[in-house]
Amino acid sequence: MALPTVTSFTALTAVGTTAFQSLDSGNNICFQVTLASVGTNVVVRLSGSLDSTNFFNLQSDVTLTANGTYGYVFPNTPVLYVRGQLVSISGEGTPTVTIKVATSNQD
Q1: What are the CA-CA distances from residue 20 to residues 36, 53, 81, 94 (Å)?
Q2: pLDDT band at 71 (very low <50, low <70, confident <90, very high)
Q3: What is the mean pLDDT of residues 15-26?
Q4: In the chain, pLDDT over 70 holds for what percent of residues?
Q5: Which CATH number is 71's domain given?
Q6: How many domains does one find in the chain?
Q7: Which domain does 90 fall in, by range?
Q8: In whole angstroms, what is the distance from residue 107 CA to residue 96 CA?
């Protein structure tokens, strides 16, 4: 089995969306979301797409209230593109949300 491909997106410090990463179909997908300098909370969205234009949620939006690293796994997910989004920021300060995605094909 080949090692997963890992992509690091540019960190988000304001509401916005990362670039997208293209994938092969039939992927196992793992997102790693690292949060630093959180005030009250941030809301993060993990999205997939079939055409790189129209994205849909892979799960419900996630509210993070503590600094740390969080993992989200989507086995055998037939999307062709993925991206992350910082939906909202609550509280004082400027949080940093760093998102990485690892993908591997089903063998």
Answers
A1: 22, 10, 6, 23
A2: very high
A3: 88
A4: 94
A5: 2.60.120.1110
A6: 1
A7: 5-105
A8: 35
